[in-house]
Amino acid sequence: MTERTVTYPVELLDGLASVASSSLLRIAGAFREVLEPVVAHSALVIFTEDCTGRPRKKAGDPAIVEGVTIAELDAVRQRTPRGPVTPVTADAGPHADRPTSAEIAGAERPIAAWLADTGALLVLTDPQGPIDDRLVGALWEVVAAGIRQQVATAAPDYLRDSRAASSERAGAIAELTDAHATTLESILAVTRSRQTSPEDARTAVTEIASAAMVELRAVSDRDRQLAEEPVARAFARLREDLRPLARFGGPEVQFIEPPVDGRALPGEVAHAGRAIVRGTVLALVEQSSVGRVRVQWDCDGSNLLIGIRDDGPGELTVDTPSVQQLGARVAALRGSLDVQATPGWGSELHVTLPLDPPPAAQTRSDSAAAALTEREWSVAELAAGGARNRAIAETLTISENTVKFHIANVLRKLGVASRVELAAALAASR
């Protein structure tokens, strides 16, 4: 009997492992490479509320990845059922209860969509040939869970990128809202005047303008929901995160609730706050004889204030390795960390995280700000964080040649010879 070797599942698992090890900046491109042999498509788009700074992750046809909007993806998500699908054959095509076409990048296109248990959406545009709906759905569940886990760890590079993207997007949304609202309000004022064209035309234009204003406000509100998280809800999610610790014999964790009417937290601050508390609690319980940990959140309108205290031996310092890791996360959001320990009485950590990013001119040194353009600065930040040219191109929706051009200019302007030296130069400027 002839021996038959099946390599496809092994290659698929290898590819999935590569996706799992990819950074959030590269994950869309890595997942597209895995799915391309399974189902041919023109572009892959991920939409996840876990990533507040960059909820869209895209790879593929530039015309699609540069034009797809949050409103379009949100509309697809509302039509897509969550979780695993009913088993179907590999040649059955997309599952019957999933959308097969949608407006993407301003045009109606064939799509295939899956919504993971985490709420993250995967969209493939212009899918070709038979689709093993169950297989792609299972792969997507794994990738979506990995995205959530990466966000939960709140790596410093992710936090810096997320905060910059949130600030950039908020400014763009504000400008877009003001510009369109002013235009549409002017149209309404003219068409409602008795001195305008006939009534039926005025009514029609009024309806169009009113509908456009409602849609625009909906986009703005949706973006705000992505970018912010009420402080009470963020704290409730933290309690859920820490519940398994007590369930499996860990110390008692006491929670001091924040004010329910406090200012909403920027998404990256909420994620970072939870990650910092989780990391701190784990660092505290590594000590001997810790029986109780108290966690307190508060918000003074400008900062998220975190206080964590234990009843352990009081041995933590800023030089403790686990505390140093927490310090990197705090520094990524330009916050402050203070550690106070009293031998025999316990340790206490105080963290302050600013809710608002500093003005752009304050996030870099004067010399770097003067030397680099906004686009060069974006490329430099990503390159210094370890992203390769392809990942930078996908993140900023530009070509790899353009990335090479910008990096050459950045190295020349800052007088450095490599990406390692670039990272050092940017770190020194912060």
Automatic annotation (TrEMBL):
Superkingdom: Bacteria
Keywords: DNA-binding, Transcription, Transcription regulation
Domain HTH luxR-type, first and last residues per copy: 365-430
Protein name: Regulatory protein, luxR family
InterPro entries on file: HATPase_C_sf, Sig_transdc_resp-reg_C-effctor, Tscrpt_reg_LuxR_C, WH-like_DNA-bd_sf
Record-linked Pfam families: GerE (PF00196)
CDD domains in the cross-refs: LuxR_C_like
Sequence segments annotated as region (Disordered): 78-100
SUPFAM superfamilies xrefs: ATPase domain of HSP90 chaperone/DNA topoisomerase II/histidine kinase (SSF55874), C-terminal effector domain of the bipartite response regulators (SSF46894)
